[in-house]
Design a protein that fits this description.
330 residues; alpha+beta; 3 domains
Length: 330
């Protein structure tokens, strides 16, 4: 008969004796892993737990049948349905205790063993945790960086107000091309920074079979590689996000510099018709159609005139010019 409910103690590790584990029943699951049930070593109430054969999705797939020559170490928790004193209302089952045990072959069946390797126990503890402390710290740091990204990209709204249509049209072709290239690269780096920043803070959504940890050897392999790689991956994504954000900011500064300091577009001179006095005589008037250009001679007007394939520049004294009228074409 089960004893009176003990007080609930959250996430409390206890040592388990082999005679307690001998009362447990272990059944392999055809798709991989095990289900185990028996008395909790702390409160003695019946509890049960499933042992998953894989972790978060990765490259390897779990085996369909457990290898009878190997052990599988896992952390167990009490999930009894007895109401324990001091248990929070948000917690529906268990007395709060946890312990380590290994599934190993026992003749034609399976049993739980209290003999657990310390390194494997540490790997199993890491596997049982939602995320490690280091990974949680890395993701928290990445999540705190996201408001900084949002504030940084608020500058693009300011840039949009500055880099307006009326401003850009006054730039030279080279300055406009440079401005377009800077804004394009900046927008790409901004998008890359946002995507990697959120990936570092919250991870990728991955669907499918995970990396096989159905045995202690495979669990240790995961612990030595995948567990560490998760933290390294978060740090790498965060650093790339920061670098992309700074690159995006640099592109924004270049864009504003081109708007403020870029060379203006060369004015296009419209054709005009110049009516002038030949040799300064009022009785002799003539007209020429062309475009006005700079004339180094003082008090003269230079007119670039095209006659068929030939083009020449005619210099007229300003005193001879009677009137200048714009025209659509010559």
């Amino acid at each position: 008969m089960a004893s009176e409910p003990i007080e609930y103690k959250e996430d409390t590790a206890v040592q388990v004796r082999q005679e307690v584990l001998d009362a447990w029943h272990v059944v392999p699951v055809p798709g991989g892993g095990f289900t185990a049930s028996g008395p909790c070593p702390a409160c003695t109430h019946q509890t049960a737990q499933a042992l998953a054969p894989d972790v978060e999705p990765g490259a390897e797939a779990a085996e369909d049948v457990p290898d009878p020559a190997t052990r599988t170490t896992r952390q167990f928790r009490c999930h009894c349905h007895v109401d324990h004193p001091a248990r929070p209302t948000s917690v529906l089952t268990g007395c709060g205790r946890r312990w380590m045990a290994a599934v190993e072959p026992d003749g034609q069946g399976w049993r739980l063993s209290a003999d657990v390797d310390p390194l494997v126990a540490q790997a199993a503890l890491e596997l049982a945790s939602p995320v490690s402390v280091e990974l949680t710290s890395a993701r928290t740091l990445a999540e705190k960086w996201l408001p900084g990204l949002a504030a940084l990209y608020g500058l693009f709204a300011i840039a949009g107000a500055v880099v307006g249509k009326d401003t850009v049209k006054d730039l030279s072709d080279e300055a406009r091309n440079g401005l377009f290239a800077a804004l394009t690269v900046g927008a790409f780096l901004a998008a890359l920074s946002i995507v990697l920043g959120y990936a570092a803070a919250f991870g990728w959504l991955r669907i499918g079979k995970g990396q096989d940890v159905s045995t202690d050897d495979k669990l240790l392999r995961w612990y030595g590689t995948k567990g560490r790689k998760a933290v390294v991956s978060v740090a790498r994504r965060l650093w790339i996000a920061v670098g992309a954000a700074l690159g995006s900011l640099a592109c924004l500064i270049v864009s504003l510099g081109l708007v403020w300091l870029g060379p203006p577009r060369k004015p296009v001179t419209a054709p005009v018709t110049v009516t002038y006095l030949q040799n300064g005589q009022t009785a002799a008037k003539a007209s020429l159609c062309g475009t006005i250009t700079a004339d180094p001679t003082p008090q003269h007007i230079a007119l670039r005139v095209t006659d068929g394939p030939a083009t020449q520049t005619i210099s007229l004294p300003a005193a001879w010019v009677e009137k200048i009228e714009p025209t659509k074409s010559c």
